[in-house]
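We emphasize that the prediction below concerns an isolated chain of 466 residues; any contacts that depend on oligomerization or on bound cofactors are therefore not represented. The input was used exactly as deposited, without trimming of termini.
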Amino acid sequence: MESARFESAVRLSPKAVWTVFWFALFGVAALVAEVKWIGPPSGGNSPPPAPAIPGVVSHAGGRVSMESDAALFARMEDVRDPRQPLESPSPDAMKQFVRDLQELSFGRRRTPVRILHYGDSILTTDELSGRVRSIFQNRFGDAGHGFVLLARPWRWYNHIGVEQGASLEQWQIHPFTSAPLEDGLYGLGGVAFQARRGSRATAWVATAKEGTQGRQVRWFDISYLEQPGGGSFDVYVNDRFRETVKTSAPAKQVAHRKIEVDFGQSRLQVKYRNDGELRMFGTVLENGQPGVVYDSLAINGARGTALARYDEKHWEQEIAHREPSLVILMMGANEGANRFLNLKEYRRDFTDVVATLKRAAGNASCLVVGPLDQAMKSETGDLISKKMPARLSEAQRDVALHAGCAFFDTWTAMGGDGSMPRWWSTGLGGGDLVHPTKEGARLLGNWLAEALLYEYQSHGRKQAQK
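Result of the prediction step, given as a token string:
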């Protein structure tokens, strides 16, 4: 009786057998899919997949994990295979920059090696330029942060390693892009600040309280305009009155006032005295130590050819005042977004701008950094690269090399055609499909620094082989 009941219990109907079969089949399929799509179970011996982009540890779910600064700095000690090397018209194109770095490295140079980097909105957050600054100052010494505008003309304008603030409503802000001035006098950074009459306009800048760079300053170099009917401003250092600066003069001309402070952390403030016209530009922070200074000169909405809105003599004087070893020009985000851009006219105008920049830079080396890839939605809804950035990159390369400047091909470094769609999907490209994210900008800065260091190091290796 018990045996009969047992046989009855285990005897399955044909329907039940098929049910068990399909459950088993789906279970095996799910297991295979998990291994294929998700990867082997944790604790396995399989190595993790190599990162698709050098410098990126992982980019899962749009969240990017970058290599540590320690790993980055170690890798930059001897660059043998840069992501994208510079293209040079001749072996001597970067000679002055390399020579100045060598003199600094050998202890024979006491003045800073200064790099001036002009850019558009790609540069306004200082993430890209800040990475180059950090790498070079770690390698060759921190000689100070460099130039910053008097105040933030755009809310996203930032300088890593500097704190600043201003009574913005009491200043009229004139970028050469969106609020040009008839006289074309914008200072080094391309933005002029005019105090509103009847106000007590103020602005301040200070060294960083955290981080490894920008912690010390030895002097502030304030730039402003002397002019007929010019007003004056008071200077305060660490909330203590230092002096009054008068800007009245027979003719318009740029002026600089160097304010020396005790070496270390410090805060500089300027206060308008409401006694005439006052136009100011910005401040340089340097600490008097041997090393590198990196001026990030970003103008939101800028096009390379729009630099012609500067008064040429004034612009040349401001660049020469900084005595740079290298001048970098990186503008193309706005031109790349213009599918109707006349490249023939652009080449002609960009040639004139680069020629002016070279004259102003004197013996300094010059470098043109090409535009990023940009993306758009196709008719099918897929993301595809725009055509203009690649064409613009070719135009800028031709102009740079013919002018005797080096060229960094950002478009190719990113991965060429289709790279911005891939960058967006991995968290390196921004939602507008034009700008990089913070991580993407840092990665580009790492690659630019890598290319510059490779130029410096390979030159040294060639000299040693002679």
